[in-house]
Specification:
By secondary structure, this protein is α+β, with helices and mostly antiparallel strands. The protein contains 2 helices and 9 strands. 17% of the residues lie in helices and 41% in strands.
């Protein structure tokens, strides 16, 4: 992520597998100039869930991260919970999809779809 006068270390990283998959989805859907929006919302059995969608326009307050030709945006509220997160892609016999490795998540449910955050004092 860059500001006008200095480069800031990116608190969100992405693996090559995730980057390749996101890029192929953008090409397949003819949306190469679009963004992958990632956020956190209340829900699931552990309290929170990740959401993600492909969008063409961002909000003024969104944080934008660029990884070569992949653009990821995060809403300002979710950004507080996603610092240090790594986005990966997993494919096996049982499931395939993006995997969010978030150091701020304390526990997740059995299915792995929802999580809870570590309390900060």
């Amino acid at each position: 992520m860059q500001s006008a006068d200095k480069t800031i270390e990116m608190p969100i990283t992405i693996t090559k597998a995730a980057k390749d998959k996101i890029k192929s989805l953008l090409i397949q859907n003819q949306t190469e100039d679009y963004y992958l929006r990632i956020g956190v919302q209340g829900g699931g059995c552990s309290g929170f869930m990740y959401n993600h969608e492909i969008i063409d326009k961002i909000n003024k307050s969104d944080k934008v991260f660029e990884f070569d030709d992949i653009k990821i945006c995060v809403d300002i509220k979710s950004y507080l919970f996603l610092s240090g997160m790594q986005i990966d892609y997993e494919e096996n016999l049982l499931k395939s999809g993006l995997v969010f490795n978030n150091p701020n998540a304390e526990r997740s449910c059995g299915c792995g779809e929802s999580f809870n955050f570590r309390a900060k004092i």
